[in-house]
């Protein structure tokens, strides 16, 4: 979902509410309180790059608050980590008992799953990058340790991150999906390194986040093997990534996502067909239970994998017993 909002054509009495709703839709539900007199003016541009959401906020002095009540209203929401970059103006972010004061050119890391507030005492412009916590492969306790610390462009990682993210935000609308996926992975790796530096530990391997996501996909496949609707597209949607990025993740796994689904289904079918006794299910029941809706396709796939038909497999196992 791409979103572009301005208060220019909204009645003065509705401007702050209109902008607040847009911010809540693009980022996460927040309370917006203007801090200046007169009509409120605000703009928002938000774009999706694979699993990464890039938003640019520009507005008059205001306070954004993510309260416990707002968090409790969406308990099913996926855990998200955010990196905020102050482009112009000043900001003060408070989270986990820490207070980060940011001038233009500074950045801060915060967690959308816990209460926070950001005060912008004057007109400001900032970039915000949201990405799922699961992509980082970093324990929640470690994220909690590093939120609420301002990082300046003079610091080692800040000198690398700030210009890269600033350029990425400005150019986000023009990237094709394939490039967006690659950039999202790069941002995840950089955020992992940022967390490591702030936490004072060695940085994780560059592919740690990808390995974590591959494990998550494999677990998802095992949980939903019996669902005929389990496809690369449904898996990508569940993990909020593109199908292209999903396939790229599995390039080093020696199996495509489609083949992984079929292989795991056949393994479970073969295991169940080994069962003996009066209560042993029929071959067609086994196939349907593990997501095969076409008996002929199941029979062909089973023979290709095991060199025999499902019925012959069951008969041989029973004879061996």
Write a structural description.
Helix 4 runs antiparallel to helix 5, helix 7 (232-239) crosses helix 8 and helix 9 (257-273) packs across helix 11. This protein is of the alpha+beta class. The protein has 12 helices and 12 strands. It has a 7-stranded antiparallel beta sheet with strand order 1-3-4-11-6-9-12, sandwiched between helices. A 5-stranded antiparallel beta sheet has the order 2-5-10-7-8. The chain folds into 2 domains: 3-203, Jelly Rolls; 210-320, Orthogonal Bundle (Arc Repressor Mutant, subunit A), CATH 1.10.10.
Relevant CATH superfamily of the largest domain: Jelly Rolls
From the 3D structure, determine the CATH topology of the largest domain.
Jelly Rolls
What is the helical fraction, as a range of percent? Answer: 40-55%
Poorly predicted tracts of residues:
none
Shape: elongated
**Helix-strand category:** alpha+beta
Largest sheet: 7 strands, antiparallel
Count of individual helical segments: 12
CATH class of the largest domain: Mainly Beta
> Average pLDDT, to the nearest integer?
86
Strand content: 15-25%
H/E topology pattern: EHEEEEHEEEEEEHEHHHHHHHHH
The strand line-up of the biggest sheet is 1-3-4-11-6-9-12
Say how many strands there are.
12
